[in-house]
Amino acid sequence: MIKILPVVICCFYVSCSAKIHYVGQQHNPSKKVDVFVTESSIQKRYIIIGQGYLNLWAAHLKPYKIQALAEKKATEKGADAILISDFYIPHSGQSIHTVYRTDTIQNALVSTESTTITPTSTASYRIYFMKYLN
Q1: How far is CA 116 from the centre of its chain?
Q2: Is residue 58 a contact partner of residue 90, using CB atoms and an 8 Å limit?
Q3: In this structure, are residues 115 and 68 in contact, taking their beta carbons and an 8 Å threshold?
Q4: What is the full per-residue pLDDT of the chain (134 aa) written as tens digits?
Q5: Within 10 Å of residue 62's Cβ, how many Cβ atoms?
Q6: Residue 22 and residue 82: Cα distance in Å, rounded?
Q7: What angle do CA 120, 123, 129 make, to 5 degrees?
Q8: Per-residue exposure over 111-134, b if at least 16 CB sit within 10 Å of its own CB, e if not
Q9: Closest to 12 measured CA to CA, from 22, 20, 4
């Protein structure tokens, strides 16, 4: 059992580590990647060769760590630049959480109820991988 524990911990760590999943074209690895946060700041002509998606664990990272992951993925895929933008989508739905408690006080039943209603929303990042046109 003790010999299996390090293997299980290692597999859990690797499977739960923060990753950017890439969908797009593959080019020769690049050495330098430009990073942009607004499309208007890109001065060169470009095409988008791919898009990155954060897995569940990466969605809660600090922005500078997401940038580092995106830069690493861009060099692997041969991108010249990346465009990282965040977005926030409020939903009209609500999350309702109700807790019921029953207790006895001096031989009498006392029931209490507590309800919390919070709006639901989504926040994440869009990551575009770009190749400059000559």
Answers
A1: 26
A2: no
A3: no
A4: 566 766 555 544 444 467 889 999 999 999 999 999 999 999 999 999 999 988 877 667 888 898 999 999 999 999 999 999 887 666 666 667 777 777 777 676 777 777 777 766 667 788 999 999 97
A5: 8
A6: 12
A7: 155
A8: eeeeeeeeeeeeeebebbbbbeee
A9: 4
